């Protein structure tokens, strides 16, 4: 390893410490500390290994989970959908054949891979972490370099425990100041994406910094890093600090004793050096961020909740105007209308963006003493079995059930239309997930992304609304 | 993997920005355990109506674009998911080359890994190629990876850049894994660096 004296960023440091070899053209063989595997993007990779007679190099650095396809209702029955069942059975066969640790469907710890990894201490600061899923960026909240890979790369990592990559550019997004009441990590991230756009981070790894980020708990930092991919970035990360160390300590797979001390020392050395160079810098003022929702079919179509839906005539570029028109038609909205007050049919609180205990607490705070509006289907899908259990221990399940919410088993659920939980055509959903693409939550479904508190507010009022008004009432 | 050397084929115009992976292959078609067979559902939402009939106004339902092997779009092609089903669907449809002013990172890499050549070109040039592609049966382009040029129907050539390593792999039809495995000794010695002593292993019996 060359001794570098010039100041380096958090990303540079993790990168440098994982380069096995730099090839002629600058591509690096990058060592991977943790490989998380799920049922959707792995079958073809294992198929490839078998066909070429290769083995898994580090089963002890690999962990498998089922999440995308699993039903979130009664788990005692067999899975009805034949193709979902096939993917799950294929994963089970593969982990058995290749000797990979696995959280089975009926494990108390099963859940969404990006919730389970940090929760179990499988994902740790300073690591390189990959998974065949773009929201792997979530794990960057720990101060690790975590990114999504495709199935060919899954096969590559299984066989070699490395990936081939060139270093990314560094981007720092600083959010300075204190956010107002009712403003969450989700609103911060929506504001960032609204500012830089869905391609704003292309080619970069984003380091989130600034006092508003430091103030976030780990769940909030995970929400933020989770959606780095929606800003086009390869990964997002937050420097490990005392909040991180406190979170990691005592997790089942975290290092213990002396190894933990050694690790902490290393983690604390990772923060970007004073004067480190960032290719791109963006700064936002926390005070200016208010609770937000998306109106369109791209995560950059963000509006503050007091905002108005744009009109094609607002923009000069005809391609952009056509896109706005198409999004309006798809979403069933009028140009220029107020976004607040739009009635919703479904409320989904879950997904790897917002399904942790802290998210459920925030939603419960809004719901307590209220009831789901008539005609609205509202569902809570905890991110993992452990989150569900912890929430039940606090009585949150009762708050939601009494209010008329469904309280479901852990999984990806309505984040994507791959399991029984999906929107029917034309249904409008306030969702705490991360993608509002056409058909994402079911064919012709309409998605408005927002925070758990905002989704809860939509559930109890039946409309997109400003959660701050509800919270004010109860004060 | 099939080699990619020179391709002369119909180019289909899709003058849209942000064509995401869910448009290329909607999530409900991802429940396969194989790489092939996704082509018939590529762009399903735009290509078929609710009853599964082809929508005649969608470009890939029209002649000669049903046989397109090149796709031309606007910015940020392939944004969204890291799922490789998007390039598999394109490949299975018959697409071997995609041209756009910009691409989403993961999709861009996934294309190379599956034998599809993604070519980023400035918007003005994409506009010209888009015009070429609109010429129906006259919309044939030649993509010559060896020389790194695109030959337009009027004979004009457009040069493009491509990462030399990626180019080499495509030209030879090579697979990344075999290449990396040649560095096994370096990987093994990396694994034993003292700075990594804290990194825990996960034993199979401990995960339940
Ligand atoms: S919750 Fe949604 S975004 Fe997250 S891993 Fe599952 S499907 Fe992907």
Q: Can you describe this structure?
A:
The complex is a heterodimer of chains A (475) and B (208). Chain A has a five-stranded parallel β-sheet, with helices on both faces. Chain A has a five-stranded parallel β-sheet with strand order 17-16-15-18-19. Chain A has a four-stranded parallel β-sheet with strand order 11-10-9-12. In chain A, helix 3 links the parallel strand 4 and strand 5 (102-103). Chain A is built from 16 helices and 19 strands. In chain A, helix 6 (185-196) packs parallel to helix 8 (218-226) and helix 12 packs parallel to helix 15. Chain A is α/β, with parallel strands linked by helices. Helix content of chain A is 33%, strand content 16%. Chain A has helices at 10-16, 43-52, 82-98, 113-120, 151-160, 185-196, 211-214, 218-226, 242-248, 257-268, 318-331, 357-367, 385-393, 396-403, 452-461, 467-474, and strands spanning 19-22, 28-31, 34-37, 62-65, 102-103, 128-131, 145-148, 162-165, 169-176, 204-209, 235-237, 280-285, 292-294, 302-304, 346-349, 377-380, 406-407, 428-431, 446-449. Chain B is an alpha/beta fold. Chain B has eight helices and seven strands. The model of chain B has no long low-confidence stretch (mean pLDDT 93). At the A-B interface, helix 2, helix 3, strand 5, helix 5 and helix 10 of A face helix 4, helix 7 and helix 8 of B. Residues 67-68, 112, 114, 133, 135, 351-352, 412, 415-416, 433-434 of chain A line the site of iron/sulfur cluster. Iron/sulfur cluster binds at residues 67-68, 112, 114, 133, 135, 351-352, 412, 415-416, 433-434 of chain A.
